[in-house]
Amino acid sequence: PTTFRAERAIGRLGTTDFDGRLQLDLGRRTVLDVDFRSDLLDLTPFTGTPAEAGPATVAGSSGPVRRRANPRLIPDTPIPLGWLDRLDGSLAVRASRALVADVALEGLQLAARLKDGRLALDSLEMKASPDGRVTARGSLERGARGAVLQVAASGTRVRLARLNDTPAVRDARPRAEFSMEFAGEGATWRGLVQSLDGRFRLTTGPGS
Q1: DSSP label of 78
Q2: What is the pLDDT of residues 24-50, one digit of tens each?
Q3: Does the N-terminal or the C-terminal CB of the chain have fewer CB atoms within 10 Å?
């Protein structure tokens, strides 16, 4: 058989629980479709600290020394794109709560497709506590000069709060609405960011 299908897959990976379906087709081109729900989607194992840079020789020293990458700098390293051509597929996720690094997201919904080397984020929605909403869409594909990225996002009734604000302080922060659209192309992460061009609009007012 070249097709594997699980209509009801239930389990747990670490602190992440999942309940959904998946289908894997190992035909002429691999196709993987995944659709699942989760009460808690923990992505912190995949968002570790920046890796150390390779050894560098300092003049007058007895040998190479190890230098840590500055986490505030965008690395000038190539963007890996080979995986875009290895398979096709789709991903649908609905999570009541998701953890990404030090940020907790609520009401996460994601739908994405990978087809013929183009990754399309059809929709990404999440709750902005207490009653706001953030949505995004975008795409990534290979271009003549490297990765071609397009991103659009918008938010309504989003609190302009700091991550370490207490609930009382957060509730007193003003709400805002924003929209943005950016596009760029580059062979490295730094080159891609430097090429980004687009618009950003922010509208805010007193707290309510």
Answers
A1: B
A2: 999 888 999 999 999 999 988 876 544
A3: N
